[in-house]
Amino acid sequence: MDRLGFVKTVEVPEGDRLGFVILHHGELELMLQSRASLQHDLPAIASGPYRSALFLEVPDLGPIRQALAGWPLIVAGRTTFYGTEEIVVADPAGNHVCFAARKE
Questions:
Q1: Beta-carbon neighbour count of residue 19 at 10 Å?
Q2: What is the per-residue DSSP string for 24-66?
Q3: Residue-wise pLDDT tens digits, 48-59
Q4: Is the pLDDT of residue 45 over 80?
Q5: Which terminus has fewer CB within 10 Å in the chain: N or C?
Q6: Whole-number mean pLDDT of the chain?
Q7: 19-23, 46-50, 70-74, 89-93, range with the lowest pLDDT
Q8: How far, CA to CA in Å, does 98 sit from each of 6, 76, 89?
Q9: CA separation (Å) from 13 to 6, 18, 37, 39, 65?
Q10: Which domains does the chain possess?
């Protein structure tokens, strides 16, 4: 945070450690989550093999759902404590991709 000028806006502990954090720098938002926290938050993602977990914020999930019709969903839909609606898919390379849209 100090070196790159990020400001911590959300912090969620996982036991005696940091489990999830949201950092801001201007218009840039960075979210980081430990694997232990992910196990409690989204076990469907944490329990299986994957290369990486990516988080993409989009203006609206409607076009994403339409484009991914018939694609196997890992998480068909959920609402987070920080105000996003999310779906999660696995891409052909083995990455888990979370698409999120802020609730208005």
A1: 19
A2: EETTEEEEEE-HHHHHHH-HHHHTS--S-EEEEE-S-HHHHHH
A3: 676 677 788 889
A4: no
A5: C
A6: 86
A7: 46-50
A8: 23, 10, 7
A9: 19, 4, 8, 13, 32
A10: 1-41 (no CATH), 43-104 (3.10.180.10)
